[in-house]
Structure formats: structure tokens, C-alpha cells
Specification:
By secondary structure, this protein is mostly helical. The chain is built from twelve helices and three strands, in the order αααββααβααααααα.
Length: 304
């Protein structure tokens, strides 16, 4: 047993590098592994256990020194493994806990939660923005936890349109958009370039069912709606009868399209009014010049 005069050393704090500087990745991995081993070696029954507040403070101090804007998949594996350690955050959907995510991993991968954590200084809450995203949320977190353990990280694979859209929505709602960017790019190009006849009603309906207040800023849906509205507005849709029948079954999408049309009509009316005003000013200027010439350049009235 230690005497009262024996100093009690505080537990070491890991300093996780965010800028590699002049060191190679091998050197960084060795340094992190060395620090980790030191902590493990001192983790014995005789050591004072940290309270939850102290652990949270340690993570807070670490979070202040790191940048969550970097893609952790590009970092050394030894560093990535440390992100899986420590306290975990519950994933909830509809008030039910559906999984857990390591706090360090969440802070390192999501600028949204990193910023919130530094402000609130408490463990954040992670909720699915839509009940349909429950499976996608769990899959996304499991993908991140799994890929961080690999010697070489892998990217999400394209699956079905519905499942991929859910993954993209879940990722963007949590500030993890970069980790689903590859499948987002695939479907963005598809919706941006393919005619609506090839896209088909089923994909439009899939987007319609995911149009809720929490996802109103989903750029992929907004892009497609604006594109379809322009094509409809300028009679560029091959089968308008079929398209109109689809829209009758997609009231949210139809409402959004009508808003675009109303805005465009208002803008066109403003442009027409401005054009008419400019034309009037030009004609008035020409008339004034003719009148001045008829008066011989005099500014006064006739007979003066």
C-alpha cells in the first residue's frame, strides 16, 4: 500500500496528432502505439480510476486540438483504432436505442457534433431524423466502425436506390456526408442526366416518401424537382400524360413543382415589367431629343 507521502501521478493523456508535419505515417503509428502501451501498462487495480467527468474532460481537451474536417479513412490505422476507444453515444430512433457509436469516432468524423460538443461540453444525442432511416443509421455507424479497423479503409458500395438514399440522408443529417459521398455522386449524376421516363415512378415515389420537414434541405431531391419542373415548364418531357398521372400520386413533389412555377411566373412578370419600363424610358428619351431638335435646341416653349 502506498504511504501518504507517496505522490500519486495523474493518468497520462493521449495527444492525438492532427497535422502530420514532417513525420512519416510509420513514425506516427509507432508514437501512438507507444503512448497507448504506456496507458495500458499503468492501468492496474492500484491506479485511481477516473470519474466520468474526468474522462469527458480528457476527450474535450483532445477534441479542442483536432480537426473533424479531415477524412479519418486517410489517417494511420493506429490512430483510427484509438477512435473506437472510450465512452459511447446511444443511437436513437423514435425514442428507442438502436445502436451505439464511440464518442471519439463521432467527434472525429462529424464536424456537426464536434462543434456541438465543444460548445455544450457534454455527450451529444444522436437521433435519426426520420423513422425510415433507422436501418441506414445503424448500417452507417457499423460501416465506419468496421472500416476504421482495416489496414486500408474501404468505401460504401452502391446497392439499391432506396437503401442508398437512406444512407445518404442519414449521413448528411449527422454531418457525415463525406463518408457517403461516393454513392451520392453516383445517384446525383443519374438523377441529373437520365430522362424521367428512365428514372421511373418508383424512384420518384421513394423520394416523395422521404420528403418530411426534417429532410427539406436534401439537395438531391431539390435538384431533381427543379430539373423536372424546368422540363415540364418548357415541354421537354416526352410523355406528359404519363408524367401528369405520376404527379397526381406524388402530392409533395407536385406542390414543390408548383412553387417553382409560381416563383418563375412572378420573376417573369417582374422582368416583363422592368423591360416595359426600360422601353418606355428609351422612347421618352428619343421623343425629348426630337422635341429639342425641333425647337432648335432651345430649352423653353414654342415662340420663346
Amino acid at each position: 500500500m502506498a504511504s501518504q507521502n507517496t505522490p500519486i501521478h495523474s493518468a497520462p493523456v493521449l495527444n492525438f496528432p492532427t497535422m502530420y508535419g514532417q513525420k512519416s505515417k510509420t513514425q506516427i503509428e509507432a508514437q501512438i502505439a507507444s503512448n497507448t502501451n504506456k496507458v495500458d501498462a499503468k492501468s492496474n487495480p492500484g491506479q485511481l480510476r477516473k470519474t466520468s467527468e474526468e474522462k469527458l474532460l480528457e476527450i474535450y481537451n483532445w477534441a479542442r486540438t483536432m480537426e473533424s474536417k479531415e477524412d479519418v479513412r486517410d489517417m494511420p490505422r493506429a490512430y483510427r483504432l484509438t477512435l473506437l476507444e472510450g465512452p459511447k453515444v446511444d443511437l436513437t430512433c423514435g425514442g428507442e436505442v438502436v445502436g451505439a457509436v464511440p464518442l471519439r469516432m463521432l467527434l472525429a468524423t462529424s464536424p456537426t457534433f464536434h462543434k456541438q460538443f465543444l460548445i455544450d461540453q457534454e455527450i451529444p444525442t444522436v437521433r435519426a431524423v426520420h423513422p425510415a432511416l433507422r436501418g441506414a443509421l445503424v448500417s452507417l455507424v457499423e460501416y465506419l466502425k468496421n472500416t476504421l479497423t482495416k489496414a486500408k479503409c474501404y468505401y460504401l458500395k452502391k446497392t439499391t436506390f432506396e437503401d442508398d438514399i437512406d444512407l445518404i440522408l442519414a449521413a448528411e443529417s449527422l454531418g457525415l456526408g463525406r463518408y457517403a459521398a461516393n454513392i451520392r455522386s453516383i445517384w446525383w449524376i443519374y438523377l441529373r442526366t437520365q430522362p424521367v421516363e428512365k428514372i421511373g415512378f418508383d424512384k420518384l415515389q421513394a423520394l416523395e416518401t422521404r420528403m418530411v420537414p426534417q429532410t427539406k434541405d436534401f439537395k438531391m431531391t431539390k435538384m431533381l424537382i427543379e430539373r423536372l419542373t424546368r422540363q415540364w415548364y418548357h415541354y421537354q418531357i416526352a410523355n406528359l400524360t404519363e408524367f401528369d398521372a405520376w404527379m397526381e400520386k406524388l402530392p409533395k413533389m407536385l406542390h414543390a413543382m408548383n412553387e417553382h412555377v409560381d416563383n418563375w411566373d412572378a420573376i417573369r412578370a417582374q422582368k416583363q415589367a422592368a423591360s416595359k419600363q426600360r422601353k418606355h424610358e428609351v422612347e421618352k428619351k428619343a421623343y425629348d431629343e426630337q422635341l429639342r431638335a425641333a425647337r432648335g435646341g432651345r430649352a423653353g416653349g414654342f415662340g420663346m
